[in-house]
Structure formats: C-alpha cells, structure tokens
Write a structure and sequence with these properties.
20% of the residues lie in helices and 30% in strands. It is built from three helices and nine strands.
C-alpha cells in the first residue's frame, strides 16, 4: 500500500452520454472478436475507454477506420500511436491493481499504452479513471509475464489468459 505522501497517477475522468452511445454502437457493430478474453463482452468497455482518453488528451480515434493500422493502436496524438487498455470494475481502481496486456495483443505496435478503469453498476458505467501510461517498450521490459492459470502473487488473481501485468503505481502520468 502507498503512504499518504505518495501521489497517484490515477485520475478520475469524465464521460458523457454521447460517449456512452458511441461506444455502445461501435461495440454492437463489432460483435465477437478474435482472441477476446471476454468473447466480445468487453467491447463496450474498451470503446468507452477510447472515447474517454481521446477526449481527455485531445487525440484522434482511429480504431474504427479502414485499413490494418486500426488493429495496432486506437488513437493518434502528435504522431504517437496509442493503444488503450480498459478494465471493467465494480470498485474504484487502486495503485496496486494491474495494468494488463494479453499475450494475444502483443502483436500490436503502439508507441504508448494508456490504461483505464471503468466502474459499472449492472450494465451501466458510473465512473471512470485513467490509470496511467507507459511507453510500449518500457511496459514489456518492466511487466511480469503470467501464463493462463498462474496466480499473480501480488494480488491472488488467477490469470485468465497469458498476459503481462504491471501495477498502476509503476505507470507514468498521462501526458508525460
């Protein structure tokens, strides 16, 4: 746990009903995607994370554009390719929670990862946070790799798919 003098990179991020509608429409149109941990059920959360971050950092969303680049990153900002990774939660995120990238997503070649947490009550998003960012190369150099079925010793979480995990506290503030 952090002490009271440490600052968190986690910032509460606003979202609008228009962002929610846009994310729901994109998720519905996408349907089930290959290599999805949640078999497509997380599409809405992912798209809402993109909407939130794009608004927060004033970036362009490209994840629904034509062409292959949409598979490698979600946003463009100042020439940087940004991939958004979002988690659906029932509670607010903590600094010791993990920013995760599934092995099945390791083919993506973003410059930067930005991680979000979105709290839901039932099927409705109620709060969102941007939890930090990391240069892609630094992320993989610092993250722990877990195989499906492993238990992450830092939090007791049983890994659902091969993935890389890095605690939010080890991320950089967004925009740095």
């Amino acid at each position: 746990m952090k002490n009271s003098t440490e600052r968190s990179n986690i910032v509460k991020a606003p979202f609008t009903e228009e962002m929610v509608k846009s994310a729901r429409n994109k998720a519905k149109n996408l349907g089930r995607i290959n290599n999805s941990i949640l078999k497509g059920a997380g599409n809405f959360t992912g798209y809402l994370g993109e909407e939130i971050v794009a608004s927060y950092i004033q970036a362009e969303i490209i994840s629904n554009d034509e062409g292959e680049e949409k598979y490698n990153h979600d946003l463009i900002k100042d020439g940087k390719k940004i991939e958004i990774k979002s988690k659906r939660r029932t509670v607010p995120p903590r600094d010791y929670y993990d920013a995760s990238v599934a092995e099945t997503s390791a083919h993506q070649k973003p410059d930067i990862y930005i991680f979000t947490s979105i709290q839901f009550k039932g099927s409705e998003p109620i709060k969102a946070w941007i939890c930090g960012q990391k240069d892609a190369g630094e992320y993989f150099a610092e993250a722990n790799f877990y195989v499906k079925g492993d238990v992450d010793p830092s939090n007791g979480w049983k890994v659902l798919t091969d993935c890389y995990n890095l605690p939010y506290k080890d991320l950089d503030p967004v925009g740095s």
